[in-house]
Structure formats: structure tokens, C-alpha cells
Amino acid sequence: MAGAAFMMHCTIRVRSDMPRSHSTKDARSIAASALRTQKNSVQAARLAVASAAVIGRRLALGHAALHDPAGADPHEFVRMVSEKGTAVMAAAAAGLRRQPAAAALVARFVAVEAGAAVQAGVRVATARTPSAAVGAQWQYAGEAAARTWSFYLGLGRAMAEAAGSMTAPVLRTAAANARRLG
User: Fold this and answer.
1) Are 52 and 176 in contact (CB under 8 A)?
2) Using CA atoms, how far apart are residues 138 and 156, in angstroms rounded to an integer?
3) Pairwise CA distance, residues 147 & 109, whole Å
């Protein structure tokens, strides 16, 4: 009974310092991530088709070179390596260009969480009653969950953007090779 009476006296007030547009921002992150993921899927499908065409054509060139080494195109065999290296370097550069945005997102989240933890600690420490201390802890937990969810969505969006940026140069190279090799 004492526990029930204590809980009756506990008033847990959830106060949020987050802007009201928080859920709108999350919805936009979800929509942007979904759109980018769809674009990434299309890129991956186009890359698979172009790669299959290039691999098939180059296998045929290699097979023909085994039977007639003098008729082989040495430039095409050099391109097999140099074009892949160039595409991979462009993909790595695209990933590095996206890295500061993701790093800033993580740093911002860590800074906000550190400040929120300190504020929550102060609210708990200065609570006048045990129920107020419990309320401050619940408030912190609820707000931390919302901030973490938003961070998760934002990071997912940033990673989807990075994946698309990194796939683009490889796709361009494969598509150009498929067109050139016919």
C-alpha cells in the first residue's frame, strides 16, 4: 500500500525543450532516407546490368585473345585495371566528402546529450521530493529517447546519401564501358 500511495503522489511531468517541429523534422528525415534508398536501389540495379555487360564483353575479349594473341586489344586489358582504380578512388573521395557531415551530426548529438545529462542531474539533485526526482529522471529518459530516435534517423539519412554518392562514380564508369564495348 505504501508503494501505491507513493506512486499516487508522484506527478511525472514531461517537459520538452525540443522544438515543436521535432516530429516534422523526423518525418522529413524518414522521407529523405526512403527516397535516397530508392535511388540507391535503382543505382545498384543499373550498376549490376552495366557490370554484367562489361564483364561478359571482356570475358569474350579475353577468350579471343587466348586463341589469337596478336589480334588482342592491349589497351582494353589495361583499361580493366586503370578504370576500376579511377572509379574506386572517385568513390572514396565521394565518401570522404560526406564524412564531415556525418561527423558533425555525431558531434552535435554527443554535445547535446552531455548537456542534457548535466541538466537532468541538476534537476534530480535539486528535486524537493522523491517523486520530483523520479519525475526528473522520467523526463530525461523520455527526452533522451526522442533525441536518440531523431539522431538515428538523421544518421541513416546521411549514410544513405553517402552510399549514393559513392556508388555514382562506379556506375558512371561501368555504364560508359558498357556503351563503349557495345
Assistant:
1) no
2) 27
3) 8
CB 31 within 8 A of CB 155: no
Per-residue pLDDT reduced to its tens digit, 132-158: 999 999 999 999 999 999 999 999 999
Q: Considering only 13-27, 46-60, 99-113, 119-133, which range has the smallest mean pLDDT?
A: 13-27
Answer yes or no: pTM beyond 0.85: no
Please write down the long-range contacts of 74-83, taking CB distance under 8 Å and 24 or more positions apart: 79/177, 83/173, 83/177
The span from the CA of 77 to the CA of 128, in Å, is 78
Cα angle 140, 144, 146 (rounded to 5 degrees) comes to 125
Please, which residues have CB within 8 angstroms of residue 99's CB and are 6 or more apart in sequence?
A: 162
* Average pLDDT in the chain: 85
Pairwise CA distance, residues 151 & 117, whole Å:
16
Rg (CA), the chain: 28
